[in-house]
What we know:
This protein is mainly β. It is built from one helix and 32 strands. GO terms for molecular function: 6-phosphogluconolactonase activity.
Amino acid sequence: MMKWFLLPSFTMVTTVSSVNLFVASYTGSITTLSLTQSTEGQYTFSKIATTETPGLHPLWQEKRGDLIYVCNDNLAAPNGSISSYKASATGQLTLVQQPLSTQPGPVSTVIYNQGKALAAAHYSGSAVTSFSIGDDGILTPLQSFVFKTPPGPRPQQDVSHPHQVVLDPSGKFIVVPDLGSDLLRIFSIDDTNHLTEKSPVSVSPGSGPRHGAFLPNYGETSSTLKFFLISELSNTVSSFAVAPSGDSISFTPVSNADILNKPAPEGLASAELQISPDGRFMMTSARNATLLSVPSTSSENATEIPSDTLQSWAIDSSTGGIAFQQLTPAGGRTPRHFSTNQNGTMVAVALQGDGRVVVFARDASNGSQGPLLASIDGMGEALSIVWDEYD
């Protein structure tokens, strides 16, 4: 069932041609959606391809050119896997490599060394792994780091839980938020694609660091690199000034704020953090607290439905300070992942709890979220969404 909304007074979204998005669902598929704007200004979603992944549970996508690498959580096996696909111009996915067995629970990947290698974070495997990428996109295992670090004080922190791999703008380091051990793990990168583990950075005990991002254009607006972190267990967002430190990098805390700009309700779980393409704003998401509502997406139901929230923040690029701007509906329940389009005028949200994908308008000039443009249900447990725009 689909429904779309457009407020004519919101002028930041201009007429666009059809664009594809890839949605990974934990129920075992990757769906290609086409988002099209009519001449009347209405946006609609349509499903144009579905790639079934029998026995696998895809939950993260990393796109580089026409290649997409997908993390799979293999519930029926002791290992995880990473699949490789090639995307056609029409949105069809062709399997490049059969799922490659990995450490358990891969939840994030990042491509490094100009497309020559890939690193993965393994939540349930307490590990970081690396792979070389052949000219044909084929992955070959390189390294595996398994962590036995003492965990944090909360029940969810039973062991080390690496949750993401983040490449710094220089391409020389990878940072890994470890939710289980309250650490930012740091790895340097050499010319042969190998990683070297450096001394980790401790964050607040019990905070549970989940995802992070570097300021993408720091050289244009600030001489100091900045890093932003969302912590799932403390429900906070933090910023750091990053500087060279011998053969590694150092992190100096700059600011820390509650994800909702007020104390978190019981059960809240912060999820995603992304920096806007221009580096001036930050968006975050929080799950398990339906504080707002949105119109029902069903034509048979005129009532409003509960919604978790997205948050908008302004970034002071010179200091790394953050200022809360806006609390808005996510479009439904459990916004585990979202992503903005290339020019920052739309944000797509994967809503795991409702099996829904939505797209909101976004004002790139001031970072505010606009009206709901399009929505599609029946997407299973939607866990990640990627625009087919980025190289």
